[in-house]
Automatic annotation (TrEMBL):
One Pfam family it belongs to: GST_C_2
Name of the featured protein: Putative glutathione S-transferase
Active-site residues from the entry: 60, 190
Alphabetical UniProt keywords: Transferase
Length: 315
């Protein structure tokens, strides 16, 4: 983490507050734009297979959601995938995993180039996931909560046969769970890790484990969070749980107990991990190298822990 990287996201009380999403365009089946055109007067881009590129880091839980949903819905041919290096330097996410250090489709070396092409005055943190229009090189959206919802609702014409219905007809219960899990768990681990005061850290820590206790009890008598059917909310929780023992427990000081010490949450996370699209999209090496090497204010030595043994997920 470069000096001051998160200054704009830290309050005077030491609490970490995640920045908003700068690009909130949507790719919608209701867009009035023709293929090849930009957004319509309501900011809706046309659904067009082969046009858009989803840029992700395999280390990032927010991006990992979109990787899983894209895979589950069978959208691999409709929306191409770009993977950045897990190590982010002062210039942001880099395409150093690609030949010559450039994305072969977008022709850029840093995701920030697409951000600045879209908004030359942008001075916030460059984030993934981002969907980039390959025709203009501009960012359509980095609105990670909406990206996965739209993959389910706007790209239905390109879903594979038998694709799961990740969004229930009545969303009220799921949306409440999503909000609670985001606040206390998904974002809560970051509020622990990036807190710069003891008070802010302990407040986030208490909220995190209080919510995990509630979820542990909820999963005592059901396979998924909403019963017997996999939903979007399960994916959102999974991408935090799969990183919990590897990085959040130690690196972010979320250490009341490990995931493996929650019987129901651990059994649930392992069940998900062993489903197609979940465990086969997890890269523990990239996850650990990103957190332990990039956040040098938290881990100045840059040493990456050897454990935990990933075989516990399938044994």
């Amino acid at each position: 983490m470069t000096p001051g990287q998160f200054v704009q996201e830290t309050s005077t009380a030491g609490e970490w507050k995640r920045q908003g999403n700068r690009f909130t365009g949507r790719i919608s089946r209701d867009s009035s734009s023709a293929p090849g055109e930009g957004p319509d007067d309501q900011g809706r881009w046309p659904v067009e297979p082969g046009r858009y590129r989803l840029v992700v880091s395999l280390a990032c839980p927010w991006a990992h959601r979109s990787v899983i949903v894209r895979r589950l819905l069978g959208l691999e041919d409709a929306i191409s995938l770009a993977i950045v290096d897990p190590i982010r330097d002062e210039r942001g996410w880099r395409f150093t995993l690609d030949p010559d250090g450039r994305d072969p489709v977008l022709g850029i070396s840093f995701l920030s180039e697409a951000y600045l092409r879209t908004d030359p005055a942008y001075d916030g943190r460059v984030t993934v996931p981002a969907i980039v229009d390959t025709l203009t090189g501009e960012v359509v959206t980095n609105d990670y909560p909406q990206i996965t919802l739209d993959l389910s609702t706007e790209w239905t014409d390109f879903h594979k046969p038998g694709a799961p219905q990740l969004i229930p007809a009545d969303r009220a219960e799921m949306d409440q769970l999503i909000d609670e899990i985001y606040r206390d768990v998904n974002n809560g681990v970051y509020r622990c890790g990036f807190a710069t005061s003891q008070e802010a850290y302990e407040e986030a820590y208490d909220a995190l484990f209080a919510r995990l206790d509630v979820l542990e009890e909820r999963l005592a008598d059901r396979e998924y969070l909403l019963g017997d059917t996999l939903r979007e909310v399960d994916i959102r929780l999974f991408t935090t749980l799969v990183r919990f023992d590897a990085v959040y427990h130690g690196h972010f000081k979320a250490n009341r107990q490990k995931l493996t010490e929650f019987p129901n949450l651990w059994a649930y996370a392992r069940r998900l991990y062993q489903l197609p699209g979940f465990g086969d999209t997890v890269d523990f090496d990239q996850i650990k190298r990103h957190y332990y090497v990039t956040h040098d204010n938290i881990n100045p030595t840059g040493i990456v822990p050897k454990g935990p043994d990933p075989r516990v997920w399938i044994s």
